[in-house]
From TrEMBL:
Keywords: Cytoplasm, DNA replication, DNA-binding, DNA-directed DNA polymerase, Nucleotidyltransferase, Transferase. It is found in: Cytoplasm. One of its GO terms (molecular function) is DNA-directed DNA polymerase activity. Belongs to the beta sliding clamp family. Pfam families: DNA_pol3_beta, DNA_pol3_beta_2, DNA_pol3_beta_3. Residues 253-376 form the DNA polymerase III beta sliding clamp C-terminal domain. This is Beta sliding clamp. It comes from Bombilactobacillus mellifer. InterPro entries: DNA_clamp_sf, DNA_polIII_beta, DNA_polIII_beta_C, DNA_polIII_beta_cen, DNA_polIII_beta_N. Confers DNA tethering and processivity to DNA polymerases and other proteins. Acts as a clamp, forming a ring around DNA (a reaction catalyzed by the clamp-loading complex) which diffuses in an ATP-independent manner freely and bidirectionally along dsDNA. Initially characterized for its ability to contact the catalytic subunit of DNA polymerase III (Pol III), a complex, multichain enzyme responsible for most of the replicative synthesis in bacteria; Pol III exhibits 3'-5' exonuclease proofreading activity. Forms a ring-shaped head-to-tail homodimer around DNA. SUPFAM superfamilies: DNA clamp (SSF55979). Residues 1-126 form the DNA polymerase III beta sliding clamp N-terminal domain.
Length: 379
């Protein structure tokens, strides 16, 4: 196996593959990066069992400056290999397998010899049936993940809650994440050519890595689903993730259908107030912010305090207010995450009581995007 390639292009193309490689693994070969060279180009693979990413560097793309002398395959220790390539002095480097899986990397005055592993020992990528596929734009998928995935649990005590629940029906994709204290739900339109229905849970960590892989050039993502794997295809990259086993809890019943108090704010303005109030609440062990709604006087007061530091109070004028007076406490970090997801959209906050979850929705198209937060009992 021998080839020469543009160093910067190589680094850029394998950046996604790096995301799937763990520095520590119970399977030592998975700390490596697999390279397979054919007459068409170079395929680079990384995997940590839960997540596998493969990218293809085509010889036909002149930007790669890929010259192929002889095909072959090898697995190299990813961390050392990548650091070596980044430090090479010239714009190109030559890669050649010597005897006993040793690899010679040369660039200008530099020569590195590193020990590799037999590529035949590398685990095979999952097999995913690609006859039933869905298509979604990279922009919408990235938005969908950013608006929901933060609400997934980070605790392994309930593994199913560490994922994003996806339900696909007709041309609609419903995404839900919850850690049992908060919930984020988003609905988007997709192209479901075969009108197949799916109900699956994808690990939140996988989806966060997926959207980090997208570049500005990415336009469309093709999704294929099997019994325990999901495959995302975009550009020259294949992104595999395992699916979480088990039934996701029913979340529809958690979302209140009626409310007794309603507020309207610009999400950005409310976020700034919550951030100020949380400066002191973070200094307290319970990290609680209190919201007092006075509908008669058309005002809302946000307070945070720390017995060790002091208190903060901020009175706000909502764009609209109606219903009953209310005094409610909550974790400000949950509200900040929810408000960040809305950006600068005008939103409606709907409450039923001081001890029942409250919702945040855009003032227009409210059913497509819902955030729910459970209050904290302070008495």
């Amino acid at each position: 196996m021998k080839f020469t390639i543009n160093r910067n292009q190589f680094i850029r193309q394998i950046s996604n593959v790096q995301r799937a490689i763990s520095t520590k693994s119970t399977i030592p070969i998975l700390t490596g990066m697999k390279l397979v060279l054919t007459t068409e180009g170079l395929t680079v693979t990384g995997s940590n069992v839960d997540l596998s990413i493969q990218t293809f560097i085509a010889q036909s793309d002149s930007d790669n400056e890929l010259t192929i002398d002889s095909p072959g395959a090898i697995v190299l220790p990813a961390r050392f290999f990548i650091e070596i390539i980044k430090k090479l002095p010239e714009t190109q480097f030559t890669f050649e397998i010597l005897n006993n899986n040793q690899v010679l990397i040369t660039s200008g005055i530099s020569k590195f010899t590193i020990n590799g592993l037999d590529a035949s020992d590398y685990p095979h990528l999952p097999e995913v049936e690609t006859s039933d596929q869905l298509k979604i734009t990279a922009e919408i998928l990235k938005q969908l993940v950013s608006e929901t995935v933060f609400a997934a649990s980070t605790q392994e005590t309930r593994p199913i809650l560490t994922g994003l629940h996806l339900k696909i029906k007709a041309d609609q994709l419903l995404a839900v994440a919850t850690d049992s204290h908060r919930l984020a739900q988003r609905i988007v339109e997709i192209t479901n050519q075969n009108q197949n229905e799916f109900d699956l849970v994808v690990p939140a960590k996988s989806l966060m890595e997926l959207v980090r892989c997208f570049t500005e050039n990415e336009t469309e993502v093709t999704i294929s689903i099997s019994e325990n794997q999901i495959l995302f295809e975009f550009g020259q990259t294949l992104f595999y993730s395992r699916l979480l086993e088990g039934n996701y809890p029913g979340t529809d019943r958690l979302i209140p259908q009626e409310s007794t108090t309603q507020l309207e704010f610009e999400a950005k303005n409310l976020l700034e107030s919550v951030e100020r109030a949380s400066l002191l609440s973070h200094a307290s062990r319970n990290n609680v912010v209190r919201l007092e709604i006075d509908t008669a006087n058309n005002k809302v007061t946000l307070t945070g305090n720390s017995p060790e530091v002091g208190t903060v109070a901020e009175t706000m004028q909502p764009q609209a207010i109606k219903g009953d007076n209310l005094d409610i406490s909550f974790n400000p970090d949950y509200l900040k995450d929810a408000l960040n997801a809305f950006g600068e959209t005008p939103i409606s906050l709907e409450f039923t009581s001081a001890l029942h979850p409250f919702t945040l929705k855009p003032t227009t198209d409210a059913e497509s995007f819902i955030q729910l937060i459970t209050p904290i009992r302070t008495f």
